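Late entry, written up from scratch paper. The run itself happened at the end of the previous shift, but nothing got recorded in the book at the time, so transcribing now.
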Amino acid sequence: MKSILLIEDNFNILENLIEYLEMEGYRIFSTNDGIKGIELARRFIPDLIICDDPKPGIDGHEVLRLLIGTAGTSEIPFIFCSTNSETSNRAVAIGLGADDYIIKPFELETVLHVAKTCIESGSKRQKCIL
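Output as recorded:
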């Protein structure tokens, strides 16, 4: 069973994603906190991470940087999920190593499609020595 880590501070969105993705057959790990998300990623090595941005305390960009900088989590596909629809923000996220960028509000089917694609193809990040 493939697993997905959800890092989302909006409780309603988090609950909807958990329920929907579990019904689609995924094992879900979740938190509303970036630091806890990093801990969960390092502990369970999910097949995909979907992270809200920005986060209070530690933002999604820092979550991604820290995970890319760790050997065990550096190749996990990473999707940002944000209300910020500015093209420049998407470009920054992709430039940091995110594999995709979903704009809220979104359809659950869209998240599922992007998640399946990322899990099947793996991370687009170029392998590099960190």
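Strands lie at 3-7, 27-31, 48-52, 78-82, 100-103.
(Scratch paper discarded after transcription.)
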